[in-house]
Amino acid sequence: MDKTEFLISKWRAEGIDMVYPLVFKFRSAVVGEGWLAGVELCGAAVVTKEASGEFIAHGLKPGGVAGVGSTLTEAYLAYKEEVQTVLYDMAGTVPYEAFRESVLEFFDSADAWGEAKFAEGRSMVAAGKVDSSLTLEPNPDPRVSVVELELRSKNNPVLPAGESLPVQLAA
Fold this sequence. Notes:
This protein is an alpha+beta fold. The protein has one domain (3-151, 166-170). The chain has 4 helices and 8 strands; from the N terminus they run H-E-E-E-E-H-H-H-E-E-E-E. The chain has helices at 3-13, 72-91, 96-107, 112-126; strands spanning 16-32, 35-50, 55-61, 63-69, 136-137, 143-149, 163-164, 168-170.
């Protein structure tokens, strides 16, 4: 049994039909009390297609959140929405520096299961065993940046244009 067959049989034993190692980029403006931050995530997630047909996006970078959908895209968008909610919740009433530190800690909160599934999924992508129309991103580099932006006034902040770049398969 080769590595590909082994991984597929292992996933099926776990009730998983397929694993998609996704990398993504998105930017968000987060307003706190007296500050405005720009957060850019170059993140990673593992989307599993369960034997039931349901897709679950498990956060890797950042971890600790998930999204569920009937398609890979729906699961990713639900995950992205959860990440956004966490960022807004972190802003609360804390000073900018505390927010920044919380975001950096949140981004690095990956678990061993997710890291293993991401690596397995990358092997499957490299072997050509993942059926997807997403483009490939070789050697992805998950990272986060948080910068404080200038406020024009408390009632009229200058917000950077929201941007969400294409989701890709990690290869």
